[in-house]
Amino acid sequence: MSEHYYANKPTAAHQRQVVRLDINDVHLVLVTDTGVFSRRGVDAGTRLLLESVPAPAEGVMLDMGCGYGPIGLYFAAVCPYCQVHMSDINERAVELSRENAVRNGLRNVTVFCGEAFAPLQKQKYHLIVTNPPIRAGKQCLLQMFSAAHRHLLPGGRFAFVARTQQGAKTLAKAVEQIFGNITDLARGGGYRVYMAYKDADATVALD
Ligand SMILES: C[S@@+](CC[C@H](N)C(=O)[O-])C[C@H]1O[C@@H](n2cnc3c(N)ncnc32)[C@H](O)[C@@H]1O
What we know:
By secondary structure, the chain is an alpha/beta fold.
Protein backbone atom coordinates (compact mmCIF):
# COMPACT_ATOMS: atom_id res chain seq x y z
CA MET A 1 0.00 0.00 0.00
CA SER A 2 1.35 3.47 -0.78
CA GLU A 3 2.45 5.52 2.17
CA HIS A 4 0.56 8.60 3.36
CA TYR A 5 2.36 11.81 2.41
CA TYR A 6 2.11 12.90 6.04
CA ALA A 7 3.97 9.90 7.47
CA ASN A 8 6.51 11.16 10.02
CA LYS A 9 9.35 9.14 8.52
CA PRO A 10 8.66 8.03 4.94
CA THR A 11 10.44 4.81 4.05
CA ALA A 12 9.74 4.71 0.28
CA ALA A 13 12.86 4.46 -1.89
CA HIS A 14 14.00 7.93 -2.94
CA GLN A 15 13.02 9.25 -6.38
CA ARG A 16 14.14 12.83 -6.30
CA GLN A 17 13.02 15.15 -9.07
CA VAL A 18 12.95 18.85 -9.76
CA VAL A 19 9.75 20.87 -10.25
CA ARG A 20 9.34 24.56 -10.99
CA LEU A 21 7.15 27.18 -9.39
CA ASP A 22 6.64 30.28 -11.54
CA ILE A 23 4.12 32.77 -10.18
CA ASN A 24 4.25 36.52 -10.76
CA ASP A 25 7.94 37.45 -10.58
CA VAL A 26 8.88 34.47 -8.42
CA HIS A 27 10.70 31.59 -10.07
CA LEU A 28 11.67 28.70 -7.80
CA VAL A 29 13.30 25.37 -8.53
CA LEU A 30 12.17 22.79 -5.98
CA VAL A 31 13.43 19.28 -5.31
CA THR A 32 10.71 16.76 -4.45
CA ASP A 33 10.81 13.08 -3.53
CA THR A 34 8.60 10.10 -2.80
CA GLY A 35 6.68 10.28 0.47
CA VAL A 36 5.84 13.98 0.15
CA PHE A 37 2.68 15.70 -1.06
CA SER A 38 2.30 16.52 -4.78
CA ARG A 39 5.84 15.48 -5.67
CA ARG A 40 5.32 15.57 -9.45
CA GLY A 41 4.47 19.26 -9.53
CA VAL A 42 3.14 22.08 -7.37
CA ASP A 43 -0.48 21.34 -6.42
CA ALA A 44 -3.17 23.36 -8.24
CA GLY A 45 -4.73 24.35 -4.90
CA THR A 46 -1.38 25.59 -3.64
CA ARG A 47 -1.00 27.69 -6.80
CA LEU A 48 -4.45 29.25 -6.38
CA LEU A 49 -3.58 30.09 -2.78
CA LEU A 50 -0.31 31.76 -3.80
CA GLU A 51 -2.04 33.73 -6.54
CA SER A 52 -4.74 35.03 -4.22
CA VAL A 53 -3.32 35.65 -0.73
CA PRO A 54 -1.85 39.17 -0.51
CA ALA A 55 1.77 39.01 0.63
CA PRO A 56 2.70 41.11 3.65
CA ALA A 57 5.45 43.73 3.30
CA GLU A 58 7.14 42.53 6.48
CA GLY A 59 6.48 40.59 9.67
CA VAL A 60 6.64 36.97 10.74
CA MET A 61 4.63 34.37 8.84
CA LEU A 62 4.09 30.63 9.03
CA ASP A 63 3.51 27.94 6.40
CA MET A 64 1.85 25.13 8.38
CA GLY A 65 2.34 21.71 6.74
CA CYS A 66 5.00 23.00 4.37
CA GLY A 67 5.76 19.81 2.41
CA TYR A 68 8.76 20.47 0.15
CA GLY A 69 8.18 24.18 0.55
CA PRO A 70 6.23 25.88 -2.28
CA ILE A 71 4.14 28.14 0.01
CA GLY A 72 6.72 29.26 2.54
CA LEU A 73 9.47 29.66 -0.05
CA TYR A 74 7.21 31.65 -2.38
CA PHE A 75 6.44 34.11 0.43
CA ALA A 76 10.10 34.22 1.46
CA ALA A 77 10.95 35.24 -2.11
CA VAL A 78 8.14 37.73 -2.63
CA CYS A 79 8.55 39.25 0.82
CA PRO A 80 12.30 39.50 1.58
CA TYR A 81 11.67 41.55 4.74
CA CYS A 82 9.49 38.78 6.25
CA GLN A 83 10.75 36.10 8.56
CA VAL A 84 9.19 32.89 7.26
CA HIS A 85 8.65 29.88 9.49
CA MET A 86 7.71 26.57 7.89
CA SER A 87 6.75 23.38 9.69
CA ASP A 88 5.77 19.81 8.86
CA ILE A 89 5.41 16.50 10.65
CA ASN A 90 7.11 14.67 7.75
CA GLU A 91 10.90 14.57 8.22
CA ARG A 92 11.58 14.04 4.50
CA ALA A 93 9.45 17.08 3.64
CA VAL A 94 11.31 19.16 6.23
CA GLU A 95 14.70 18.16 4.81
CA LEU A 96 13.51 19.04 1.28
CA SER A 97 12.20 22.43 2.44
CA ARG A 98 15.57 23.20 4.04
CA GLU A 99 17.41 22.10 0.90
CA ASN A 100 15.05 24.10 -1.33
CA ALA A 101 15.54 27.25 0.75
CA VAL A 102 19.30 26.97 0.25
CA ARG A 103 18.99 26.11 -3.49
CA ASN A 104 16.88 29.21 -4.07
CA GLY A 105 19.10 31.48 -1.98
CA LEU A 106 16.36 32.23 0.55
CA ARG A 107 17.86 33.06 3.96
CA ASN A 108 14.78 34.48 5.68
CA VAL A 109 13.45 30.96 6.33
CA THR A 110 13.47 28.62 9.34
CA VAL A 111 12.04 25.12 8.94
CA PHE A 112 10.69 23.19 11.94
CA CYS A 113 9.69 19.54 12.28
CA GLY A 114 6.88 18.24 14.45
CA GLU A 115 3.19 17.84 15.10
CA ALA A 116 1.19 20.94 14.17
CA PHE A 117 2.17 23.93 16.37
CA ALA A 118 4.19 21.92 18.92
CA PRO A 119 7.64 22.95 17.57
CA LEU A 120 6.63 26.62 17.36
CA GLN A 121 6.11 27.05 21.11
CA LYS A 122 4.64 30.50 21.86
CA GLN A 123 5.59 32.21 18.59
CA LYS A 124 2.95 34.63 17.25
CA TYR A 125 2.47 35.44 13.57
CA HIS A 126 1.19 38.20 11.30
CA LEU A 127 0.13 35.64 8.71
CA ILE A 128 -0.45 31.87 8.82
CA VAL A 129 -1.00 30.10 5.51
CA THR A 130 -1.75 26.45 4.86
CA ASN A 131 -2.77 23.88 2.32
CA PRO A 132 -3.95 21.67 5.19
CA PRO A 133 -3.66 17.88 5.50
CA ILE A 134 -7.30 17.06 4.70
CA ARG A 135 -6.65 13.35 5.17
CA ALA A 136 -5.67 13.90 8.78
CA GLY A 137 -9.41 14.28 9.46
CA LYS A 138 -11.76 17.08 10.44
CA GLN A 139 -11.01 16.87 14.16
CA CYS A 140 -7.27 17.30 13.58
CA LEU A 141 -7.91 20.18 11.16
CA LEU A 142 -10.19 22.00 13.60
CA GLN A 143 -7.54 21.70 16.31
CA MET A 144 -4.97 23.07 13.87
CA PHE A 145 -7.22 26.00 12.91
CA SER A 146 -7.95 26.83 16.58
CA ALA A 147 -4.22 26.72 17.30
CA ALA A 148 -3.64 29.02 14.32
CA HIS A 149 -6.03 31.53 15.89
CA ARG A 150 -4.07 31.39 19.17
CA HIS A 151 -0.77 31.86 17.32
CA LEU A 152 -1.84 34.99 15.44
CA LEU A 153 -1.13 38.54 16.53
CA PRO A 154 -4.16 40.85 16.78
CA GLY A 155 -5.15 41.77 13.24
CA GLY A 156 -3.15 38.83 11.86
CA ARG A 157 -4.48 36.74 8.98
CA PHE A 158 -5.14 33.04 8.47
CA ALA A 159 -5.51 31.71 4.92
CA PHE A 160 -6.15 28.21 3.66
CA VAL A 161 -7.06 26.33 0.50
CA ALA A 162 -9.16 23.18 0.19
CA ARG A 163 -10.90 21.24 -2.53
CA THR A 164 -14.60 22.04 -2.86
CA GLN A 165 -15.29 18.30 -2.96
CA GLN A 166 -13.29 17.71 0.20
CA GLY A 167 -15.45 19.97 2.33
CA ALA A 168 -13.92 23.41 1.73
CA LYS A 169 -17.20 25.17 2.57
CA THR A 170 -17.63 23.17 5.79
CA LEU A 171 -14.08 24.04 6.83
CA ALA A 172 -14.74 27.69 6.03
CA LYS A 173 -17.78 27.64 8.33
CA ALA A 174 -15.65 26.15 11.11
CA VAL A 175 -13.00 28.84 10.59
CA GLU A 176 -15.71 31.51 10.67
CA GLN A 177 -16.86 30.15 14.05
CA ILE A 178 -13.32 30.31 15.42
CA PHE A 179 -12.39 33.73 13.99
CA GLY A 180 -15.79 35.43 13.78
CA ASN A 181 -15.24 36.33 10.11
CA ILE A 182 -14.32 34.73 6.79
CA THR A 183 -13.54 36.04 3.30
CA ASP A 184 -13.90 34.00 0.13
CA LEU A 185 -10.65 34.96 -1.64
CA ALA A 186 -10.68 32.79 -4.76
CA ARG A 187 -12.19 29.75 -6.38
CA GLY A 188 -11.24 27.74 -9.43
CA GLY A 189 -10.27 24.29 -10.67
CA GLY A 190 -12.26 22.66 -7.88
CA TYR A 191 -10.50 24.60 -5.08
CA ARG A 192 -11.50 27.42 -2.76
CA VAL A 193 -9.24 29.82 -0.90
CA TYR A 194 -10.44 31.52 2.28
CA MET A 195 -8.98 34.09 4.65
CA ALA A 196 -9.95 35.15 8.18
CA TYR A 197 -8.66 37.91 10.47
CA LYS A 198 -7.94 37.58 14.14
CA ASP A 199 -9.83 40.38 15.91
CA ALA A 200 -11.03 41.83 12.63
CA ASP A 201 -11.30 45.31 14.16
CA ALA A 202 -7.68 45.38 15.29
CA THR A 203 -5.25 47.19 13.03
CA VAL A 204 -1.98 45.71 11.94
CA ALA A 205 0.30 48.00 10.01
CA LEU A 206 2.22 45.27 8.28
CA ASP A 207 0.02 44.19 5.38
C1 LIG B 1 -1.75 19.11 1.55
S1 LIG B 1 -0.08 18.93 2.05
C2 LIG B 1 0.57 20.55 1.64
C3 LIG B 1 2.06 20.54 1.46
C4 LIG B 1 2.64 21.86 0.92
N1 LIG B 1 2.30 22.97 1.77
C5 LIG B 1 2.15 22.13 -0.48
O1 LIG B 1 1.34 23.04 -0.66
O2 LIG B 1 2.58 21.42 -1.41
C6 LIG B 1 -0.23 18.98 3.83
C7 LIG B 1 1.07 18.84 4.60
O3 LIG B 1 0.76 18.77 6.00
C8 LIG B 1 1.64 17.86 6.64
N2 LIG B 1 1.00 17.40 7.88
C9 LIG B 1 0.06 16.41 8.03
N3 LIG B 1 -0.30 16.29 9.31
C10 LIG B 1 0.44 17.22 9.99
C11 LIG B 1 0.52 17.57 11.36
N4 LIG B 1 -0.23 16.97 12.28
N5 LIG B 1 1.38 18.54 11.73
C12 LIG B 1 2.16 19.16 10.78
N6 LIG B 1 2.11 18.87 9.46
C13 LIG B 1 1.26 17.91 9.07
C14 LIG B 1 1.88 16.79 5.60
O4 LIG B 1 3.08 16.08 5.85
C15 LIG B 1 1.88 17.59 4.30
O5 LIG B 1 3.20 17.95 3.94
